[in-house]
Structures are given as structure tokens and as C-alpha cells.
Amino acid sequence: MTLDEIRPYVVILNEGSGFFFQPMDINATYILTAKHVIQNAGNAIHLLKRFTESVGGLISEDLEYTMQPGINYFEHPERDVAILKIDRLQGLSQVIRTDDVTVDRESYILAGYPQMRRDIENDPNYHNAYRTDEGITIQGPRNNSLREARIPDRPGLDEVRGHSGGGLGKFDDGFFLLAGIQSQMIGAMDEQLGKIEFSPMSSFDSLVALYPEQLTSLDPAHLGCFSFIQDATFLLRVNLFNEENIAYTRNFLKAETEKIINSGTAPHHIRRYFNKRLLLDQANPNVLNGRNIWIAWLEFLTIVNIMEYTDVEEADLKQLFNSFRLLYSDTKDDWTVEVQKMIQADYHGLPSGGVVVIGTNSSPLDGLYEIEAKRIPNLLRVTNKKLMQTDNGINFPFDHYRFVHLDSFKKKCITDKIAEYSNIFDEQELIIKLQGEYEQYITRNQN
């Protein structure tokens, strides 16, 4: 995602701004804004405009909206936040929330339609009214659940007015991480320049909690159901000449993901149960809101379904986590660079002899789909032992667990043996073949 691609997410709302957010509700799109943007307009919506991309550039569009408090408009009684609820808009899926502002404080962006950019006479459609302020730094907490941020070059009130309701966030791995919505300038005039206050996403969570029947969690739809990422599973990429040899197996595995989807198990259930324990790098919780970790989980659960001869359901998750543990990293580097994090990951509840499956954003280099204990440098065995998270009796994870990459179940068990699959066109025969390959791979050479 680029700076230019943020604009379709930002709306002109009265004398301020608003920001599109796709919640878990697949039938609705939310516009997050500052409550005072509505109140200062006589508790009404006089102007609601967005820009959409077309071949010739951006075009303005007036959004039809009749304000109905408690039905499609919701405001917090104490905090400066409000949500406008409209019918679901297509796309707009590259924004996810971040709550990590206490640790990750640098390089934020504020996007909105400040007043000084609005020129009704010469620019009636507001094409030139949009502005992004870059290089913003998150500061400390303020009263009324607000947080402080600092804009470089110390802009004054006249330059920021109209940004209220605009989105504050940053880029990460193709997404815009929305940290909150701009509220106002700092009140003390002698230090006002460049200092703003914004409402973090937790303030909108508080608003959602007041309307549990009308509003849903401010999480992306793919956290609500695995069906949103089904098409991204089991790609099984091969060359053109092998395509017809793998097509049936690929289509079968994609169809098998339906069993997980229909079981009712969803990403938000798994996240609720295990949270940061799912991650190799627990200092980066934003990964839990992305897509790639849940693509890995859908593949993993489907593989386990086939291996175990039974359907894996929500009630089985804890037991599964204590026998096969999937840990995920969003690194695009080779998985071997994550060895230190593997040593320090959370293994509580996983008995000796268990299998640790590592998922990453890229396939292993040099054909190394398993990391054996003998490969671990002695230096790593003695450094930071106090940071290890293991149960009594387990001194070093690589001495007690088998570490395999998630892609090994596709590479070692399928594509490396593609000739053995080329003439299988019967579902039951394929199930037996996959079960045998998975079982043989998992049980061999246990540490």
C-alpha cells in the first residue's frame, strides 16, 4: 500500500474528516470519526463525500446517508468518538487496526481534509483538499482516553483544523495500520504547535461495547470466518508441465478447507484462546490482525483434519495446541533467521516429543524444511536461557521438539512426489495417500 492509496479510505465529513473501516460485519462498512465533527454541525450530517479510483484518476462521490441515532449513527457519551454505519462497500480491505502505539511510536501519518485546503469557489468537489502529514510521533496518554502525537514542523491550529476525524496510522507489509482518529489540537496555547490529540482504537471498542446488537468488533472480516481467505490456501505452485498432475490434489485440499469453515472455528476464536502465544515474535501483535497467519492456520487445520481422520473443531484447539504447535512469523526472510525466536517462543503445555510447525511468509531456502538440534550453534544454547518459556524438564526446545516448516507438508509430501499424484482422481484414494504421506513425514526421525 502506498501513500496515494490511503485517500479512498478518507471521507469529507461536515467541516472535518472520517475514515472507512471494514469491521467483522460483512454487511456493513463503518466511518470512524470524532464526535465533535457531528455535534459542531448541529448534530447533523451536511456533507459526506468520498473519492474513488477510476481510469482517469479519482472521482468524487456524495454518499447517501440519513442519520438515525442508535441505528446507523453511534456516539460515545464521554469520549470524542462516533461511528457512522453504512451498507458494505467493496474493497477497502487494506486497513487493519493497531493497538501497539506504546511501543511502536515513530513514522505515523495523518490523513484528512483540513479546512485551509478547502476552496469551494475554485475546487467545489474538494479534489485538492486532501492532505497527509507524515513523520508523526506518538507521545503519552492524555485525559479522556486520548493520546498525544506530534506533527513535524509545528503546524498551528489553522493548518490542522478540519483534520478532526482523520485517520492516524502507518504502513506495514502492504497494510495501513490504523492507530486512531484525530480529535483536536493540544489545548494549551503556549505549546499547541504541532501537538495533537487522537482517540486510539480502544475508544472505538468502548463505543462498540455500548451497542452489542448494532455494532460488531473492529476487526477485519477474515477474522470472523476462514472463508475470506480460502482461495489463498494450498496454492501448490508448479511449472506449467506439471500443472495437470497437481490440479486434482490442489482442488481437493481447497475443498477440504470447507470442513474447517463449516465447523464454526474462526480466526477470532483461535486468537482469543492463545493470543500472542501464536507468534514467534510476541512483540509484534499486529500480525494477529493480518491475513497470512490465518491462511497458515487454515492450511494447518486442514492438514491435521486429514491426518487425524476426524474433523478438528473449536473444542479441540487446546488439545491440538499441546501436541502440534503452529507458531507464526511474518518475516519475509528465510525461516532460519528466526532460530533465536524459536528458542524463546512459548512452549508451555507442549510435552517432550511434540511437533512445532513454523509458518512464515516465504518458503525455506536450500531445501531446509526441518531444523534439527545438531544444527543449532552452541552459543545459542547458553545465551538468554532465562528467556526460554518451557515447562519443567525441558531445558532446550530443539532437544525435545521436532521443528518443521509448514510448507514441508506441501513440498515434501506432495510436490516432491508429484508423479505419484498424477493418476489419482478418486477422493478416497487421495485421502489415503495424503494420510500416509503426512503420517510418515511426522513420525520419522523424531528427536
From TrEMBL:
<dbReference type="InterPro" id="IPR046916">
    <property type="entry name" value="ABC-3C_CTD4"/>
</dbReference>
<dbReference type="Pfam" id="PF20280">
    <property type="entry name" value="CTD4"/>
</dbReference>
<dbReference type="InterPro" id="IPR043504">
    <property type="entry name" value="Peptidase_S1_PA_chymotrypsin"/>
</dbReference>
<feature type="domain" description="ABC-three component systems C-terminal">
    <location>
        <begin position="200"/>
        <end position="414"/>
    </location>
</feature>
<protein>
    <recommendedName>
        <fullName>ABC-three component systems C-terminal domain-containing protein</fullName>
    </recommendedName>
</protein>
<dbReference type="InterPro" id="IPR009003">
    <property type="entry name" value="Peptidase_S1_PA"/>
</dbReference>
<feature type="region of interest" description="Disordered">
    <location>
        <begin position="132"/>
        <end position="158"/>
    </location>
</feature>
<feature type="compositionally biased region" description="Basic and acidic residues">
    <location>
        <begin position="145"/>
        <end position="158"/>
    </location>
</feature>
